[in-house]
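Re: export button greyed out
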Amino acid sequence: MVDDVLRLKLALLGSAFRGARRLARTGLVAVLIAVFTGAVLDAAQSFRPEDDGHRAGLIVITSILALALAICPLTSGLGSALEPRRFAPFPIAPGRLAATLALAGAVGVQGLLTIVLVIALGVAWAGTPFEGAAVGGGLVGGVAIVLTGQFLVAIAAQLAVAPTTARTVALFARGVVGLCLAAAITTALVVERGRDDARVDEVAAFLSSSPLGLPWAVAGSEPPALTARMLGAIALVGVLALGWRLLVGRLLEAPERQRWVPRSRGLGVFDLVPATQGGVIAARSILYWTRDPRYRLAILALPVAPALMMIALAIAGVPGQYLWLIPIPVLALFLGWFSHNDVAYDHTAVWLHVAAHVRGASDRWGRAVPPLLLGVPLVVLLAPLFAVWSGIEGIEPALLGTSLGLLLTGIGVSSVASAAAPYPAPRPGAGPFDQPPLTAATAGWSQGLSLLAIIVLMSPTLHTAWRGATGEPELLPAAAIAGAATGVVMLALGVLIGGRVFRRRAPELLDLVLRS
Amino acid sequence: MLQVTGLRKRFGRTIAVDGIDLAVRKGAIFGFVGPNGAGKTTTLSMITGLLRPDAGSVVVGEADVWRSPGDAKRVLGVLPDRMRLFDRLTGAQMLYYCGVLHGLDRETARSRSEDLSRALALEGSLDRPVADYSIGMIKKVSLAAALIHSPRLLVLDEPFEGVDPVSTAHAIDLLRSYARAGGTVVLSSHNMDLVERVCDSVAVIVGGSILATGTLEEVRAGSSLEERFVDLAGGRSAVEGLEWLTTFSD
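Workaround output, generated via the alternate export path:
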């Protein structure tokens, strides 16, 4: 069976050499591989083990390249991806299939480039006591890359329901890989210049204790840390392998793209909420946020924006203590803003609300419940933690107040925007990347203005908080109170105004989704 | 029960509905028939408060649908054509949702959902997501959703499209007993036989205007409804330009 799958994989690779267009594409890929190999090996040779900046830079660059390599299988599209569900009709034990697919995954461009990366790591440390550790850590890291790639392919194949979605996934992956390569080159240049070693050092220290950087930071560590990191990396691979095995098992058993069907007489979430218009709309919203891929993707993507911002600002040289202040407010802002087009997501199903003449405020409150349920605990739990990490005295209430303010103001603004200026959205049942056939100019306006409105309404708080954090600590309590107060007032106002607009414009909203 | 006067709607340059007047008495089962694109769905959407008319008024019972929508929509039960349901909910959740939106309390919403699902033979499917339903099943759940708040006027757009004969018979029995008890039904359909069997009065709409209206006997004027309908809709046009279709290729 292993032979068969490997032969299949080789045949798939071989098909890249048939046909003029595909041959041209393969040629391009080959050139890219050669450039990558040359550049990486060249960089490895110019590595100076005794230079602290170089050591930190090596960890950052290898981690970024590892991320790029893990994503790289998605860039070629999912058309002929060896994803587990394709093997569901054959009588293959899930355990064997998981192992075989992982092995087959290693054969190909991703595997080749991963080997290049591991060799380069060995070359970099050659002639030092860390040579063995580098190769060992690199090999473990390589396995992690391949397994992560398999995960991504399997998950993307489940998400990509329509061909357009599959194309978008590939484009998106190419974008991320491009960004990673750019980041790696930037880091190399920064290290070469040697003036911002402290910054690179901080990023490296952070990466070394994250799963992404663990295997690549094994070499160059002192013995206790070296052992700990090596064990950590091995444990990471163990978790990935186990997770892969479980995922394959589940994909083989679960019927195709079927999500969860309860077999009880109960009404699920509906039993937990009051039997009022607002109550059932909230329950329905919660179900959609948890079950609809359009909402789920947004929730999954939510942590990405703050993380990327942190990395970008870290490379740009923003001091660490301020970096920790960024993620939670940004997360709160986007979570609040996310529902600014909620009505369009219902598509024509919103007729039920129109026909029942739902009270506008009930409709708005109901839709506000999922972001509140998700956002408030998240902010309350995480804001103090990030405040402590930033190390700025007394910042905690201000960070909490500002984040809550952004979340609530965002939900308030979204309540008005989704009733006043909805624009065509992906339809129910479509993949999250599928764009509607008609994208109106309203889309850009609505997105931009609603985001701007949140920031403008919160600007007094943001300004006060910023001054408080940068040298006027006596302003911090004021920022906390201002943030919370703005949030509560804006949420209440947003629900009231949005409710009136919704009720007045309900037939027009329905007309708009009908035409889109 | 339903009084429509001077209803008008245009989309861009096309006039979809051109000044329609209708009167439906209490207890009637009123059929609304017309060829594709005649303006049936547009008219019914305006009657049910889903699409704002350019001119004209719709009065349900005592209440004007567009002036006091709250009062009118309380007594209106609606089944629109080609509109989604919240299809990630199960059938049971969907019915409960509609019941509560229309102001029922928890127990009433639950017990009525069960009664309706029994009457429409939906029991076996209530725990599946609506997204998995066939077109006929969706129509049945929609009909149940339209009935759950016991409205005085039911407006059903193509209620039997894709519904199997047994379920159609169930649904028709249900509508008849509803009308006997004083409820009023307005339904649109392409199926002339069905309209002839079920409705006691009809209106024929072509090109946005009503060409004939009255009791079934009046509109039929001696021939079958189907014949009358084809006449009113412009008669059978001779099949020209398709001669090749009668010269078979082998």
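Chain A is about 75% helix and 0% strand. The button fix ships in the next patch.
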